[in-house]
Amino acid sequence: MASDLQPGQRLARGVSRHLRGLGFAVLEEFVPMRGLRVDVMALGPKGELWVVECKSSRADFQSDNKWQGYLDWCDRYFWAVDLEFPVELLPDETGLIIADDYDGEVVRMAPEEKLAGARRKKLVQKFAMDAARRLQSLRDPRFGRDGLLISQPSSEL
Hints:
six-stranded mixed β-sheet, 6 strands
């Protein structure tokens, strides 16, 4: 299975495994709002929200010009990279996780910038809804008939 994943996806898997071991619930490729997609969103045991962006190479990092937009959607922001990544490129005011396909380790804790209560509530609800939908789609990948709701008028089917 790991061979089917792209390098960033392998990092995300290792990060997710590590964060689950710390008591976090984790979603990969989470969309906090239209136009933003974070590699890993983690919901901690005390309700804290962490964003982790996985970078597999110098070019991957240098082409990312939207990461600062993610800071408004988490309490802590981290980069996840492998042992070969030139970590001196990463901003000091962000967290750092060194990871591989199977695990990770927080080597620099990100500073905490607490989210406003209303935004936290909205994000936690979206996190729960996305997680529930993903779980349900594993059990029922063809929701309704031909992927459509059965309750729709038959003329639309």
